[in-house]
Structure formats: structure tokens, C-alpha cells
Write a structure and sequence with these properties.
With about 325 residues, the protein is an alpha+beta fold. The chain contains nine helices and ten strands. Strands 3-2-5 form a three-stranded antiparallel sheet. It has a three-stranded antiparallel sheet with strand order 6-7-8, covered by helices on one side. The chain has a two-stranded antiparallel ribbon with strand order 1-4.
């Protein structure tokens, strides 16, 4: 009886252990591969799953979340033979658990080796200046190459970032001197460009001023010519009127014209800046004759009012009685 009870207890324990061996709980973010006699059969998703005890077993527990892989520092020789120290970081995510489990051994190590070799390949094909200034381009090229290589493993490379690029100390010093020289060169070029622009603007201003002055002189010359033309027309018209008056038998206009010209000539001689002594080259009777002509013009203009003042003196036809033996009078001014 005791043996039978012991057998029943052992049987119950085995039954409970068998049931527990067939029940598998998968946490969120993971997938388990199931192997039957060493061959993959299916994958267990998060939650409660049942397998056949002692026939099926869990092969690999695959993390399906996005993971980060640190790329250690390594030396890279650039295209222009500069040695730099580079480190980075890679982000990847498994999207096919069976392929990630059975297509590659040690997935993390494989992705790390793939990233390291491609960093040397991509960055080694670039110059140092391009390497330092095109980090986004380097990340994009690395991501494209590594993702294409890791795709058969059921892995998606989401990002690859270069964290730091450290050139040698002597190279950093040389780059500092180069940057300083480049900035000084740029300052000199900008200063020369400013001076050139200033000279151009000054020359343009002088040119514009000369153009405006030339236009002013041309306009003034045009106005002077127009004034001389009007004056000539007026003189011509006055001459025509004078000729008509003389032809009609009226010498008063001719006398007035001659007297006016005579008085203007005397005025010009008397107002000359270097004139100290005025010598009249004509006899005094000539002036009287001119004044007589003016009187005749006034008499003709005022009519009876001029006649009431008395008859006009006859115009002298010879030298006056009081002239000197030489025939000229001198007046000092």
C-alpha cells in the first residue's frame, strides 16, 4: 500500500513537471525560437505559449527591440595620408528572429565587425577636410552600406553615427595655422574689394559730375546761341525799320540810332577798368549834332509839346568856333 501511494505521488509530480515544461511565457519585446529534435519549427510570440514537452525546446531568445552597439575607437588613414582616431555608435533592430538566430552566429559581433570595416572603407576614401566637414554624408553612406550587408541576417540598421574624429596634435596645430592664414587672407581680400568698390563708386561719381557739367555747358551754350540769335534778329529788324524810315524821308530815326551807338561807345571807353584819361577823338560839334538829332526825335515824338519849347537848332555842319588849332579837345576824367 505504501509503495502504491509513492508511485501515485511520483506520477503526479511527473505530470505537473510535464505540464510546466510545455507552458512557456514570452515577455514583451522578445521572440523565442522552437526547435524539435534540433530543427527549427516555429517562433513563440510574447504571451503564453504551449510546446510539446521533451520533444520541443527553446532554441534562442531573440530581443526584438531596437538595440545600440558601441563602436570602439579605431585609427583611420584618410585619402591624403592623415591618421585620425574615430569612434561611433550603431543602432539596429531584429525583424526576423529565425534568420537572426540561424543565419549568423554572434549577431552583435558580426554587426560590430561589419560597421568597423566599413568605417575604414568609407572614411579612408575621403580627404581630411572632407572628413571633418561632411559628417552627415559619412553617416548616410555608412548606414546604406551596413544595412545592405546585414539585411540577410533579418536585421535592420536604423542609424550609424560618428561620435568623434580626433586628428593628431601636430595636425591640429597645423590646421589652426592654416585657418588663421585663411582668415587673414579673407580679410585682406575683403579690404581690397572694399577699396576697389570705393574707387569704382568715386570714379562713377566723378564721371557723372563731368557729364552733368558738360550737359550744363552745352545747355548754357545753347542758351547763349539762342540769345545771340534773338539779338541778331532784333538788330536785323531794327536795321530794316531804320532803312525803311530813311527811305521814307525821315532821318530822325537814323540820327537817334547813330547817337545811341555813339553814347554807348563813349560809355564803354569811360568805364574801362584801366581808363585814366579819356580823349575825345571827335570835335565837340559832333556831340552837339548828335544831341540835335535826339532833339528832333523828341520833337517828332511829343508833337506840339516839343514845338512850344522853340524851334530846333540847325545841325552844325562844320567845326565849332571855340575849337583849338589842332582840331581836338581833351578832357580828363
Amino acid at each position: 500500500m505504501i509503495g502504491f501511494n509513492l508511485f501515485v505521488v511520483v506520477l503526479l509530480v511527473l505530470a505537473i513537471a510535464t505540464i510546466l515544461a510545455g507552458v512557456k511565457t514570452v515577455p514583451q519585446g522578445y521572440q523565442y525560437t522552437v526547435e524539435r529534435f534540433g530543427r527549427y519549427t516555429r517562433s513563440l510570440t510574447p504571451g503564453l505559449n504551449i510546446i510539446i514537452p521533451f520533444i520541443d525546446r527553446i532554441g534562442h531568445k531573440v530581443n526584438m527591440m531596437e538595440q545600440v552597439l558601441d563602436v570602439p575607437t579605431q585609427e583611420v588613414i584618410t585619402k591624403d595620408n592623415a591618421t585620425v582616431a574615430v569612434d561611433g555608435v550603431a543602432f539596429f533592430q531584429v525583424f526576423d528572429a529565425p534568420r537572426a538566430s540561424y543565419e549568423v552566429s554572434q549577431l552583435d559581433l558580426a554587426i560590430l565587425a561589419l560597421t568597423t570595416t566599413n568605417i575604414r572603407t568609407v572614411m579612408g576614401a575621403m580627404d581630411l577636410d572632407q572628413l571633418l566637414s561632411h559628417r552627415d554624408e559619412i553617416n548616410e553612406r555608412l548606414l546604406k552600406v551596413v544595412d545592405a550587408a546585414a539585411s540577410p541576417w533579418g536585421v535592420k540598421i536604423t542609424r550609424i553615427e560618428i561620435k568623434d574624429i580626433v586628428p593628431p596634435a601636430d595636425l591640429v596645430t597645423a590646421m589652426g595655422r592654416q585657418m588663421k592664414a585663411e582668415r587673414e587672407k579673407r580679410a585682406v581680400v575683403l579690404e581690397a574689394e572694399g577699396q576697389r568698390q570705393s574707387e569704382i563708386l568715386r570714379a562713377e561719381g566723378e564721371k557723372q559730375g563731368q557729364i552733368l557739367q558738360a550737359e550744363g555747358r552745352r545747355e548754357a551754350a545753347f542758351r547763349d546761341a539762342e540769345a545771340r540769335e534773338r539779338l541778331a534778329e532784333a538788330d536785323a529788324k531794327a536795321t530794316q525799320m531804320l532803312s525803311a524810315a530813311v527811305a521814307s524821308g525821315d532821318p530822325a530815326a537814323l540820327n537817334y540810332y547813330i547817337a545811341e551807338k555813339y553814347v554807348k561807345a563813349l560809355e564803354a571807353m569811360a568805364t574801362a577798368p584801366n581808363q585814366k584819361t579819356l580823349i575825345l577823338p571827335y570835335e565837340a560839334t559832333a556831340i552837339l549834332g548828335s544831341l540835335a538829332g535826339i532833339a528832333e526825335i523828341a520833337r517828332g515824338a511829343f508833337g506840339e509839346a516839343g514845338a512850344a519849347r522853340g524851334p530846333a537848332r540847325p545841325r552844325p555842319t562844320g567845326p565849332a568856333a571855340g575849337t583849338s588849332s589842332g582840331g581836338h579837345d581833351g578832357f580828363g576824367s
